[in-house]
Amino acid sequence: MNYLAHLHLAAHTRSSLTGNLLGDFVKGPLPSTLGPAFDEGIWLHRRIDAFTDAHPEHRAAVACFEAPWRRFGGILVDMLYDHWLSLHWPQFGEDPLPRFLQQSYGQLLADHQRLPDGLPVALTRMAEQNWIASYRHREGLGRALNGIGHRLRRPILLGDALATLDDASWHNGEQGFLRFYPQLMRFSEQQLAHYRETGGHAGLRP
Asked: Where is the signal peptide (predicted)?
């Protein structure tokens, strides 16, 4: 999953927003040296990504992309899921999306001072420049994907992949997301409840 989904699931489970985003940047075994709250978020991030990547709806969405785009299917679908989450936000979020993003960015930037090395540069820029708001629109989604593609070892205009989806594939992917996301919310609740019940010793190697 991508930034918006991880932020929403962190808020939904009352876990560290920053920790949940650090899961893309902190590698290796837990516990880390960052502290229990951040470790909990990193752990949940890893569980969420493993569940998502193995889910039939996610795999079906990836399969909609043909070569050469399918090799980037995981990235593409994760970004599409943020797009669809933005569009259907009232169904899942408690606060309006702009307010949620403003509060989330504020927490991320506040935690910057608490981390030994600060926030990763990408997270700081995301918070300062409000990247996530652009995901709601296809044009913004395409620009965000091109930004990701530019940072790959072999740069590619990753946003061009969106034009290869026909209307049926787009609709099916969106409906698949709407079936999948409530399952992911329940999974996140259950996993974190178990983690907390065991004092943070539940599967520290996801």
From this structure: none
